Structures are given as structure tokens and as C-alpha cells.
Amino acid sequence: MNETEARLKNLEQSLNKLQKSQGMGTQAAIVEELRKTKAELQMMQAENHIYSNEKQLLLDREIATLAELSTIKVSLANAQRELESTATRTEMKDMEMADVVSERNLLKEKSSDLNKQIAGFQQEHSAMQMKYSEVVERAEEQEAIFKEERRDMLQRIDMLTNGRKNLRQLDLFLDEENEFKQEELEAEIEVLRLELKIAQEDRIMATSQSKTLKLSERDYKYRYQRNKKDLDAVAQKYEEASTAADRAVNDLESLKLEHAKLKEFNATLAAEVKSLRDQNKAIGSLEADCNQKGVLIKALRDEISELEEEGEQLEATIQKLKCSSPPSNVNMRNNSSSPPSVAVRSGKLESLTPETEKPKAQQQLFAKDHQAVLNHVGVSAFMR
Questions:
Q1: Distances (CA, A) of 343 to 18, 89, 102, 317
Q2: Which of 60, 94, 103, 321 could staple 342 via S-S, CB 3.0–4.6 A?
Q3: What is the pLDDT of residues 200-230, one digit of tens each?
Q4: What confidence score (pLDDT) does residue 5 get?
Q5: d(CA 321, CA 324)
Q6: For position 177, what pLDDT does the model report?
Q7: Residue 373, pLDDT score
Q8: What is the C-alpha to C-alpha distance for residues 59 and 67, in angstroms, rounded to an integer?
């Protein structure tokens, strides 16, 4: 901005010098064109300022977009970590489910084994009951037989006692026979006593067998109760395992729902990232447009600098003409309003014309310079 202002000041100084040295006919047109050029320069500076502000805004938007992209990348990384943790959790739940299923199968096998054992125990119990009933029947039969034998023995003992009484009465008559019969009776009594003792021992054995059967039945009942308790504990464990499996299934379903939600969130994030990438592409296209506009502005500045150089060359040629012109020509310029006899074209000094043709030649040269300035201004406006 300072350089352009300095150049504009130089142009104004050169214009002032031209106003002092030349007439006001073509000089006013040149001044007007230079003022237009100055206005266009100011407009170009304003446009350059606007373009710089727009570029700064675009840069700010790009920075914000990059920040949003970084946050979205962080959120995507977090979502990826959550997905990985969810996958690991699902794998762990699957492993736990496999363990629970294996434990459930083991419990089923144990329960089937226990059911088989219980069936075997029930069969043994039924067999023991049958044996016990058989033993009881045999004991009852033996007891009935023993009672009958005892009754017979008591009858025989009564008969023997009656016979002894009769024998005592007949002792006098039958001493020898009585002794012989008494020995036989004593032997028979001894045999009967032995038989009674054997029967008592059989009865004791039967009672002991019944007691052992009762103890075995009690032991079987205790074992049956214990196995029933074990079976109840196994059934409770089976129910707990089934509830744990149901809980694991519910947890797995909830994890699947969370996984689906995270997939939807990932899809939305991908759509947002795609939209941000499209915005970034649009920003890149805007930057390319800005760069093209910057190139155009640079070309306009180069043209302005060329115009300023041509103005400086014009000023230099004017100064040279002032220095080379005689004082008579100076007096003639003060008296008349004709321009100096100077021919300038594209910043180069041409040959001087005779004094009679100076006004026409100068007017033609100034007209050509004016046309060149107009051409430059038109080209710059067209390029803008």
C-alpha cells in the first residue's frame, strides 16, 4: 500500500510538472485518464483487500474444518476402540457361554449318572424289600413251626410228667422197666432240650437277621435321603447354571444391540467425514480460484508498474526536452497554449520536428500516448 501511494504521489508530481510545462488541452485528458487509473488502482487495492480477507476467512474455515476432522478422527478412534472392546467382550461372553454350556452338559451328565444311581438304588431297595419280605415270611414260618414244635414238646412233656407220676405209682411193680424207661425218657428229654435250644438259637438268628435287615433298610433309607439331597443340590446348580446362561444370552443380545448402535454411529460419522471431505474439496476449489485471482492481481500490478515506469520515462523525456529547448521556445510556450515539440512513443525519444510542425507533431504524439494509456486501461479492466 505504501509503495502504491508513493507511486501515485510521483504520478501526481509528474502531472503537476506537465501542467506547468504543457498546455491544458490534451493535458486535461491525460490527467483525467490518470485519475481514472488512480481510481481503478484504488478499486483494485480494495478488491485485493477483499480477496485477502476472503482468503483469510477461507483459511480460518479450513483450520476449523481440520479441527473438526481431527475431532472426528478422535471420535472415530474412540468408536473403533469401543467396537474392539465390544468385540472382546462378546468373545469373552461367547467363551463364558461355552463354559456355561460345557458345565451344563457336565451337570446333565452328572444328573443322568445320579438318576442311574438312584434307579440302581431303587432297584436294590426293591430287591432288599423283597428279600426282607422273604426273610420275614421265612421267619414267620419258622416261628409258626417253632410254636407248633414247642406245643408238641409241651404236650409230650405233660404226657411224660403224667407218665412219671404213673410210673411212680407203678414203681413197685416195674422197677426194671421203670429204670429203663426213665433212662429213655431222660434221653428223650435231653434231646428235646437240645432241640428246644436249637430252636431258640434259630429264633435268635432269625431275630438277628431281622435286625440286620432293619439296619440295612435304615442304612438304605439314609443313603437314599443323602442321594436325594445330592440330587436336589445338583438340580439347584442346574437351575443356577440355566439362569446364568439366560443372563449371558440377555447380555449377548444387549451387546449385539450396542454393536448395531455403534455401527450406525460409525456410518453417520463416515457420512459426516464424507461431507467434510466434500467441503474440503470445495475449499480447495475456492483456493484455486483465489490463487487464479491472485495471479490476475499480480498481472494487474505488473501492468500498473509498467504504466508507472512509462510515466517516469515520459517525465524523464519531458525533463530532457525542457533542458534541450532554447529560451525563445520557452517564451513562445508562455505566450501560446500549444504543447512542447516532444515526440514520445513507448518510452523512447523520437527526432525533433521543425518549429512550424511542432504543435501538430506534439498533438499527434500526445494522442498516440493517450491511445496507448487507454489501451492499457482497457486490457487491465478486461483482465480484472
A1: 14, 93, 111, 9
A2: 321
A3: 787 788 777 777 777 777 776 777 777 777 7
A4: 63
A5: 5
A6: 64
A7: 54
A8: 12
* Low-confidence residues of the chain: pLDDT under 50: 327-358, 377, 379-384
Question: Comparing C-alpha atoms, which of 232, 221, 236 is closest to residue 114?
Answer: 232
Residue 344 pLDDT: 37
User: Residue 345: enclosing H or E segment and its boundaries?
Assistant: strand 344-345
- Return the amino acid letter for 361: A
Under 8 Å between Cβ of 307 and 44: no
Contacts of 227 (CB under 8 A, 6+ apart): 114, 117, 118, 121
CA distance 306 to 319: 20
The pair phi, psi for residue 326, each rounded to 5°, is -75, 165
Q: pLDDT tens digits for 110-162?
A: 878 878 877 877 787 777 778 777 877 877 787 788 778 778 777 877 777 77
Residues 8 and 15: their CA atoms lie apart, in Å, by 10
Closest CA to 14 of 37, 36, 25, 30: 30
Instruction: State whether residue 371 is helix, strand or coil.
Output: helix
pLDDT score of 10: 67
**Looking at residue 6, what is its pLDDT?**
66
Could you give the CA distance from residue 181 to residue 189 in angstroms, rounded to a whole number?
12
Query: Closest by alpha carbon to 339, among 347, 349, 353, 351?
Result: 353
Q: Is 234 buried (19+), middle (13-18) or exposed (0-12) by CB count in 10 A? A: middle
Task: Supply 255's cell numbers.
Answer: 451387546
Q: What is the pLDDT of residue 303?
A: 78
Contact predicate 297/48, CB 8 Å: yes
Residue 271, amino acid: A
- Name, in order, each residue with C-beta under 8 angstroms of 366's C-beta and a sequence gap of 6 or more: 26, 30, 339
User: Who contacts 143 (Cβ-Cβ below 8 Å, separation ≥6)?
Assistant: 203, 206
Q: Is 358 exposed, middle or buried (0-12, 13-18, 19+ CB in 10 A)?
A: buried
Bridge-partner residues for 348, per DSSP?
345
Which three three-digit cell numbers place residue 71? 475431532
Instruction: Enter the C-alpha cell of residue 192.
Output: 428235646
Q: Where are the domains of the chain?
A: 2-383
Confidence (pLDDT) at 267: 79
